From TrEMBL:
It holds the Pfam family WHD_HA2. Its EC number is 3.6.4.13. This is RNA helicase. InterPro entries: DEAD-box_helicase_OB_fold, DEAD/DEAH_box_helicase_dom, DNA/RNA_helicase_DEAH_CS, HA2_WH, Helicase-assoc_dom, Helicase_ATP-bd, Helicase_C-like, P-loop_NTPase. Coiled coil: none annotated. The keyword Lipid metabolism does not apply. The keyword ATP-binding applies.
Length: 667
C-alpha cells in the first residue's frame, strides 16, 4: 500500500500539505517575474530558481520514508528535470542502482534527457541516458539516471519482472492517463508487494491525480490556484496581434494540420509588408526530427517572435521558455476505439476544461501572458467536459492484453486497473488475438507464435505479419514495410500541393498499393547511397528514412535472435500481400460506390470508409483493399492501403470469414 506524509512525525518546514489521512506534495505555481527570463544566469542558478527546488528536502524525505510519493506541480515547476537529479545527489543511484523516470511520449523522453545531461554537464547516453522504442541511448555500466517511455519499461519487465536494477521509478505525467501509464501503475503496485524497498514517485501536473491517490489509498487537497479564465471569444488574425514581445504557442490537433498551418504562415511571413514578417514559425509534434526539435527549444533570435505550432505534446510534457501567448484551438486528436465495429481511429475531439487550463497555463511563465481561446466563453463554461477520458477506456486493448499475458498475468479482468477498461473492448481484444492465433482457446499465449509476437515491440498485427512473412519467405521485404509503418511518415509534408505530391509518388508508385510502394522508396534510398539530396529531390523526409534503415536493422537482429529466417521473395508481390493479410485480414474493405474517391465498406462492420489522399491508391478505386490504420475527421480515411484478392482473406483466416454470395462476411 502506498504511504503518504504522516502528521506528527518530524517533517521539513513549510513544504507539505497534509490532512488526517496522509500527505501529498503540491508544488505551487512559479511566480511570474518581470525579468527577461533565465537567459544569462548559469544552469545551476536556473535550477535553484525552479519552484520544486524549495521542496527538495521534502521530496527526499518522503521518498526515503514512503514506498509511494505523489507529487503534483504545475508544468515547468521542475518535476521531471530536477527530481531524478535530487535522487541521484541523495545517493539513490549508488551501488549499481538506477533512477528511472518514465514519460508517455517519446519526444519528451529525448528532450528532458538532453536537458538533464546538459545540467549535469555530461554526455547523453552516459550517466544520463534514455531509451525509447528502437533507440537505446544508455550505457548499462555508467547510466544512473534513465528516462524512458512507460511502454519501454513495461517491456523491460519481460526480462526482469521485478525491475531489480531500479531503486526509484518516477512515473511522470501520470495525469495524462495514457494506456501504458495506467498499465504500468497496476504492474508497479504488484512489484511493490515483492520489493518493499522499491520507491515509486507518481508525478502529475493536474488534480487528475485524484484517482491515482485513491488507487494508492490516500487523500489530498489541491492548493494550487486555477488558471484565470479570461476568454476573448474570438481571435481574428491571431498572429498579427500587436502585443508586446514574447513567443506564441499555438495548439492545433495533429501533424497534418500543423504542417498546413506552418506552410501557410511561412508564406505569409515572407511578405515584408505583413505584420507577420517578424515571425519564426516552427512545428512541434512527436514525429519531428532531432534537427527540427532543436529549433523549437533554441532561444528566439533577437527581433523575432517565435511561433510554435504544436499538438497537445506542449500541454504538459514539454516546457518552452519564452512563451508569453497561447492560442488554443480547443481541439486535440485522440484515439477512440469502438469495440462493436472493432474500429480504432484518431479523431479530432474537443479538449477538456482541465486541458484548456493547462494550455492557458503555458502562457506567461516568465512574465504576465495571455491565452487566446478560439471558442466562446459560454462553450467553455457550459459544454466543455471537465476531464478527459483515460486512454484505457477508449483504446483497442490488443497490445495491452498481450503484454499482460506475456508477463504471466492470466486473469486480465481481475487485474488491478486504475480505471477498468470496458468489458466489450477486453472481449474484443481476446477475440482478435485468438483469431490471429496468438492466444489459444484457454486465452493462453500460443507457442511459438504468441510468445514470439509478444517479443516484437510492435503492434501485434504487424508482428503477426512479420512472423507470417518468415513462413512465406518474404521477411526481408516485410521488415522494411514494418519499419516504414513504424515511423510517422516518410514523405515531406505536401499539404496544399496534391498535384506535385501525386507526381512524386508516381516515381515510386506500385499498383498493389502503399506497402509495395515503400519497398521501391527504400530501394531507391539505398541505391542513392542514403543520400539526403536524393530525399530532398523526391520529397522524402531524410531523417525518417534514416530511422527506417535503423529500425529495419533492429528488426532483422530480433528475427535472427528468435531463430527466424530472413528471406527475400524478389518481386512476388502476391506473397507479400498474403503476408500482410495474415496480420491485417480484419481490416478488409470492398468498394461500394465507384466515384472520384470511391466509398468503401469494412467487411467487419459495414462502416463507411475512404482511401486517404496520401495513399498511392487514392482515386484508383481497387475493388478489394486491406488497410493499416484509420484516421477520422468528418469521414473515416484508410491510411496505407493495398489492393487484394478477396479469396486471400479466406485463405488467411478461414475461422474469421465465411463466403456469402455475393460478398464476404465475417463469421
Ligand atoms: O516537469 P515539469 O513540467 O515540472 O518541469 P521540467 O520539465 O522539469 O522543466 C523545468 C524547467 O527546465 C523549465 O521551466 C525550463 O526552464 C527548463 N527546461 C528546458 O529549458 N529545456 C528542456 N528540454 C526541459 C526543461
Ligand atoms: Mg514534466
Amino acid at each position: 500500500m502506498a504511504q503518504f506524509w504522516r502528521p506528527g512525525s518530524e517533517r521539513p518546514r513549510a513544504t507539505l500539505v497534509d490532512d488526517e489521512e496522509g500527505g501529498v506534495l503540491f508544488v505551487s505555481a512559479p511566480p511570474p517575474s518581470s525579468s527577461s527570463g533565465f537567459g544569462h544566469s548559469s544552469l545551476e542558478r536556473q535550477r535553484q530558481r525552479l519552484p520544486v527546488f524549495k521542496y527538495r528536502d521534502a521530496i527526499l524525505y518522503l521518498v526515503e520514508n514512503h514506498a509511494t510519493t505523489i507529487i503534483v506541480g504545475e508544468t515547468g515547476s521542475g518535476k521531471t528535470t530536477q527530481i531524478p537529479q535530487y535522487l541521484k545527489e541523495a545517493g539513490w543511484a549508488e551501488g549499481g542502482r538506477v533512477v528511472a523516470c518514465t514519460q508517455p511520449r517519446r519526444l519528451a523522453v529525448q528532450s528532458v534527457a538532453s536537458r538533464v545531461a546538459e545540467e549535469m554537464g555530461v554526455k547523453i547516453g552516459e550517466e544520463v541516458g534514455y531509451t525509447i522504442r528502437f533507440e537505446d541511448q544508455t550505457n548499462p555500466s555508467v547510466t544512473v539516471i534513465k528516462f524512458l517511455t512507460d511502454g519501454v519499461l513495461i517491456r523491460e519487465m519481460m526480462d526482469d519482472p521485478l525491475l531489480t536494477k531500479y531503486s526509484v521509478i518516477m512515473v511522470d505525467e501520470a495525469h495524462e492517463r495514457s494506456l501504458s501509464t495506467d498499465m504500468l501503475l497496476g504492474l508497479l503496485k504488484k512489484i511493490q508487494r515483492r520489493r518493499p524497498e522499491l520507491r515509486i514517485i507518481i508525478s502529475s501536473a493536474t488534480i487528475e491525480a485524484k484517482s491515482m491517490s485513491t488507487f494508492f489509498q490516500a487523500r489530498k487537497k489541491d492548493l494550487r490556484h486555477a488558471a484565470e479564465d479570461s476568454v476573448p471569444s474570438h481571435l481574428p488574425a491571431v498572429l498579427s496581434v500587436e502585443e508586446p514581445a514574447g513567443d506564441i504557442l499555438v495548439f492545433l490537433t495533429g501533424q497534418d494540420d500543423i504542417d498546413a498551418a506552418v506552410k501557410l504562415l511561412r508564406e505569409d511571413t515572407q511578405d515584408d509588408r505583413r505584420r507577420t514578417s517578424g515571425l519564426l514559425v516552427l512545428p512541434l509534434y512527436s514525429g519531428l526530427s532531432r534537427v527540427d526539435q532543436d529549433l523549437v527549444f533554441a532561444p528566439t533570435p533577437k527581433g523575432k517572435r517565435k511561433v510554435v505550432i504544436s499538438t497537445n505534446i506542449a500541454e504538459t510534457s514539454l516546457t518552452l521558455e519564452g512563451v508569453v501567448y497561447v492560442v488554443d484551438s480547443g481541439f486535440s486528436k485522440q484515439r477512440f476505439y469502438n469495440p462493436i465495429s472493432d474500429i480504432e481511429s484518431l479523431v479530432v475531439t474537443p479538449i477538456s476544461k482541465a486541458s484548456a487550463r493547462q494550455r492557458a497555463g503555458r502562457a506567461g511563465r516568465i512574465q504576465p501572458g495571455k491565452c487566446f481561446r478560439l471558442y466562446t466563453e459560454e462553450y467553455f463554461l457550459k459544454e466543455m467536459p471537465t476531464e478527459g477520458i483515460p486512454e484505457m477506456q477508449r483504446s483497442n486493448l490488443v497490445s495491452c492484453v498481450i503484454q499482460l499475458k506475456a508477463l504471466g498475468i492470466d486473469n486480465i479482468l481481475g487485474f488491478d486497473w486504475l480505471a477498468s477498461p470496458p468489458p466489450e473492448a477486453m472481449v474484443r481484444a481476446l477475440e482478435v488475438l485468438y483469431s490471429l492465433g496468438i492466444l489459444d482457446e484457454d486465452a493462453k499465449l500460443t507457442s511459438p507464435i504468441g510468445y514470439q509476437v509478444a517479443e516484437i515491440p510492435l503492434d501485434p498485427m504487424i508482428s503477426k505479419m512479420i512472423l507470417s512473412a518468415c513462413n512465406f519467405g518474404c521477411s526481408e521485404e516485410i521488415i522494411t514495410i514494418a519499419a516504414v509503418l513504424s515511423v510517422q511518415s516518410i514523405w515531406v509534408s505536401m499539404w496544399g500541393a496534391q498535384k506535385e505530391f501525386d507526381e512524386v509518388k508516381l516515381r515510386f508508385a506500385a499498383a498493389e498499393g502503399d506497402h509495395v510502394t515503400y519497398l521501391n522508396v527504400y530501394k531507391g534510398f539505398l541505391n542513392s547511397g542514403k543520400s539526403s539530396q536524393w530525399c530532398y529531390k523526391n520529397y522524402l523526409n531524410y531523417q525518417a528514412m534514416k530511422k527506417v534503415v535503423d529500425v529495419r536493422e533492429q528488426l532483422s537482429r530480433l528475427l535472427r535472435r528468435l531463430g527466424l529466417a530472413l528471406k527475400s521473395c524478389e518481386k512476388d508481390t502476391q506473397i507479400l500481400r498474403k503476408a500482410i493479410i495474415a496480420g491485417f485480414f480484419a481490416n478488409s474493405c470492398h468498394l461500394e460506390e465507384y466515384s472520384h474517391n470511391g466509398l468503401y465498406k469494412t467487411v467487419r462492420s459495414s462502416e463507411e470508409v475512404y482511401i486517404h489522399p496520401s495513399s498511392v491508391l487514392f482515386r484508383v478505386n481497387p475493388k478489394w483493399v486491406v488497410y493499416h490504420s484509420l484516421v477520422s475527421t468528418n469521414k473515416h480515411y484508410m491510411r496505407n492501403v493495398i489492393a487484394i484478392d478477396p479469396s486471400w482473406l479466406i485463405e488467411a483466416a478461414p475461422h474469421f470469414y465465411q463466403v456469402r454470395t455475393p460478398n464476404l462476411a465475417p463469421c
